[in-house]
Amino acid sequence: MRRARPTGEVTALVLAALADRDRHGYAILEEVRAMSGGRVSLGTGTLYGALERLTEQGWIEVSSEQVVEGRLRRSYRITGNGRAVLADEISRQEQWVSAARARLAGAG
Amino acid sequence: MLPRRAEFALRAFPKRFRSARADEMRGVFADAADAGDTTLFGPRALVDLVVSGWGERLRTRPPVRTFLAYRLFERRLPEPYHRWMFDDVGSNWYFCRRFAWSILPTVITYVAMSSLLGLWPVVAPVVLGWLGAVVVVSILSVFFDIGAGHRRRMLARHGYDAERRWSSPPAVGSVAAAPPPPSAYAAAPWCGSLGLALLAAGGAGGLVLWWPSLTPHVQVGVVEISRSVDHTRAVAIAGTVAAAVVGIAGIALLGRLRARFVFDALPQGAAERSLPMTFVPAGVVVAMGAMSMLPITPMVLAAALVVLGGGAPLLLALAVTATRRARRDEGSLWVVFGARRVGADARNPADLR
Question: Is the CB of B55 inside 8 Å of chain A's CB atoms?
Fold first, then answer.
């Protein structure tokens, strides 16, 4: 099974947005915005490019599909493989953050 | 309703992507509009759509080497690129793309040989007429090839039922792969184009060689640019002979490859796959007729007839043989026009509509 680490922040944010529950496209956008404190606002093109890649890689999958008020809403959920990739990415980030924090404290 | 500019920006995504996700993306825009979220409708959001769309196109297209093998030699693409192939074959621009790639060797060879002979970038009208005739041949070749069901053959080559529509791409991996096509057949279009290119270069070189007093010129508005041909006679002779020899070899090779396919490698019941090839020499014959009406010298025409005449009988013989096989295997000549099932190895994927 492929276990490459996410190649960018967008990938990690989308995986994180789906970590606690299934979400559809606009809900993912809102969740990413909330998680990043409003710093990251994904465009629709970026989001769906990422969803396409993540689906191909098997890190997320479609959980449900429904038409609400004439709008197609497809919800996504993270897969076990996706969770593992996200966990790897988080530990990688924590590693360099703690190293950077220690250097910053030492310099002070 | 999605704003028109956003709808337009969505077109940056490839067709296969839009057919799978465009409705869903429209839903996101509608959700954002309901929530009063204007960030998805600003200029940056539109730029994001366009950039992401082209990024998706680049990400999903075949690697350069695979692409060139597909375009120039009609090699079958690996399965991950079948969705890309569906978009390519179903595109309205398919004809233009094939034509552009078919004349590419012609243009490169012409420019190279013209530079060698000191003609480029000054173009003599008579040379331009010759080049025009070659372009006519290329157009007719591609036109007849496509008109005879090239799209269907390309689908059959990738293992899909050629009788089905290609507008609804199947799920990748849902169809068993077909046996690989004979590489000899696959190389035919490129060989034909290259042969014609070299013939064009040879014709241009021969013209300069036999008429050393010719002064190429071109008139741009009221300014006339002209210069003498200052090449040495030895270079001209070598270039012309080499171009003619390789050009004739190209035509001969084309004929031999086609002969091998038709007589040796043709699977039973798939004679129709060879038939469209016979339209290419038919296009050459038509173009030769058209060329005789162009204002070019009788000598150039005679040279072209001599060179092309060598391969014509063989190609016509192949056409007759292939037609007989089609009548024997299919009982009808309608197959010539792509009206019958193409390819004995074509599958019937249930998910194709």
Answer: yes
